[in-house]
What does this fold into?
Amino acid sequence: MGLKRIERTPSAYSYPLIIKNLLRTPMIYAPRQEIVYRDNLRHDYLTFGKRVARLANALEVLGVESGTTVAVMDWDSHRYLECYFAIPMMGAVLHTINIRLSPEQLIYTINHAEDEVILVHSDFLPMLEAVKDQFTTVKKILLLTDEDVTPETSLRLDGEYEQLIGRCSEDYDFPDFDEDTMATTFYTTGTTGLPKGVYFSHRQLVLHTLGMFTTFSGFKSQAHLDSGDVYMPMTPMFHVHAWGVPYICTLLGLKQVYPGRYEPELLLRLIREEKVTFSHCVPTILHMLLNSPSAKETDLSRWQVVIGGAALPTGLCKAALERGINIYSAYGMSETCPLLTTTKLKPGLLDADLDEQAAIRCRTGLPGILVDLRIVDPDGRDVPHDGQATGEVVVRTPWLTQGYLKEPEKSEELWAGGWLHTGDIGWVDPDGFLQITDRIKDVIKTGGEWLSSLELEDIISQHPAVSEAAVIGIPDEKWGERPLALVVLKEEFKGKVEEEELKEFFVKFYEDGTIPKYGVPNRIVITDSILKTSVGKINKKDLRTLYG
Ligand code: AMP
It folds into this structure.
């Protein structure tokens, strides 16, 4: 017998999973809840809803229609949040531009995505000026600014956001359309070649919103998010939709705080004054915050911070736990919208001591709901979930990019065998916890054996003098590659700790069997800072060139 498809009454409405439908609930549950932008502004959700409609009318004036790609270059702002909704709700595509791209990458992504309209914060005008002669599709540029005066620019501006939306109607009849319509696109810079565009449909973003919320809040553990929380992103809104969290928080009608450009003292003040309870960031940002002068005067004990984008080192985790921060890891990538896993302290562990908790909180995590995650060997066979056997992480979920924009070959590579290949190596333990041990490209191969650079970083992060660390493989005539550790010391230890002492620290982990003897780095370099990528992660590719 064949499958029995449901009958559709001719008049029955087939409800599409489109972003516009996420806005229904907060307008009923939380119309007066606040959305805050730095010290500059606060307004309620009703105003936000009206501004979304005004923005759609304004964009229509600029010629935006369904299918148009509209790019945004802004710090994290209330305006960016309006773009997250208005642009896709019109049936247009939101392109969130990475504001840290090189001029070559910037113009490549603008032309490749076929941006027709760019909304640009005044701080990024010089970036656009530098590439404007190479625009192939851009027709209009709208200025975003917090100042009263229009800045000098050689670009032809087609208006200023506030002035333009101020003149537009607060009513807009957002249409219904197919849920498979493209809603967003953005570029991942990867480690080689030109940036690659990923893209997500309305259906995918709605399901990601529901799936991520359920994963965070549906299970009794340290992770929770509900309408009583106060949200402030610390992952740029151009980076994988700030991990999709603004969509969840808007759906639930949370108080939201958008900090603009990330300035540590301002972030800390917003945490204090706006009583922020939920944030997320890469380890570098939290590291920077905890080391800023007013961190000590800020009560962080009501703050929950999800760390993703890179492994959470044990040293940083413990430092945060000592400050009372509810810190833990999540994992995903640009291609995956992003959520794949988040770590969970099962109820019995909620009162465990700091060391025991840190061990779980630093795990990469359990797959989120609807996430089908496997670890496979090079032939695509599953490796045992014994907490030891490693392989590549491959996944299926409803919210994975279905390809790279206009890149059929790379898309097929990404999706080889019908599973999305993350390019990450890891193991799964018998309880189902995933641990990423490396990017395939970052793995260190020494004397024919694989070494996990993340494990070595995690070890050295636990030395009391170490503030930040990176481990890379550098070519070695005899062994193929050898690990080299770069270490930034805490202020109070600068000039007092030598490379030899740090090496001894590794030796202890060899002696207790945690790592093999060849895991002890030959060279340790004490440095003032470690090179980062455009999204604040350790830039291993450039470090390898620099030290190799
Ligand atoms: P991006 O596409 O820039 O967001 O980078 C995604 C990559 O960051 C993943 O493929 C991983 O290599 C890395 N990553 C993200 N989250 C974690 C995590 N919790 N632990 C280890 N690596 C991570």
In short: Residues 188, 240, 308-311, 329, 331, 333-334, 338, 364, 422-424, 436, 439, 535 surround adenosine monophosphate (CB under 6 Å). The domain at 43-177 is CATH 3.40.50.980 (Rossmann fold). The mean pLDDT is 96. The longest strand covers residues 466-476.
